[in-house]
Amino acid sequence: MARFTDKRILITGGTNGIGLAGVRRVSGEGGLVMTTGSNPERIDSLRQELPDAQVWRNDASDADTGEDLARQLGEPGGGLDGLWLNAGYADIAPVEEVTAEFFDRMMAVNVRAAFLQLAALSPHLNDRASVVITSSTGSVEGSPVATVYAATKGAIESAARGWATALAPRNIRVNVLVPGNVDTDFRRFMDADTREAFNRNVISRVPLGRAGISEEAAAVALFLLSDDAAYVNGSRYFVDGGLSKR
């Protein structure tokens, strides 16, 4: 299968986890893939692994994250066939320990960045392009220590519904990927014992009884990016083993 032959696809946050699985898959299916990261070692590693891919350093927490990506792409025209806004950041804190800095950083990466990136990249989207936004089942789980993270993901899902309407006149689709407990190092901010306990608790509530893997979540994102999903717009796709049962 080569759904992305001659297609230009940009994936933010593509040097690790679900994004990296997507980068590899798009490249393997004939696409020209561009991706971003902020970790120099991961950027260098991916450049060596996929020399035909374009791997750019971009910090989603920066106020110029969107303008920087637009500069990398150059002048509009011959633009993007797919845009997957996947970069994200997570941390936890009890209600009493939430600070302005804690709140602002997570909002900057998970919400503001997507707004700024889409604003800057919209002129680069070809008609009939597809946009995918990465959310999380955290938005519906009700975790007592992930309230800020949940709020950021709820906000971006709400924005995506508006974007789906706003871009529809250009035949550009916008859909949301909602991963559950996927086995990446996204929870690396936790110490090992906390992470193990957290994962064990989540898995105990997953009907399939296991964590997902990055490739499984990326496969759904790539379906949404592809022409196979040409009549799918404004939807949320849960990849969570039945955790949310929606």
Automatic annotation (TrEMBL):
Keywords: Oxidoreductase. The keyword Oxidoreductase applies. One of its GO terms (molecular function) is oxidoreductase activity. Gene3D superfamilies: NAD(P)-binding Rossmann-like Domain. SUPFAM superfamilies: NAD(P)-binding Rossmann-fold domains. This is NAD(P)-dependent dehydrogenase, short-chain alcohol dehydrogenase family. It holds the Pfam family adh_short_C2.
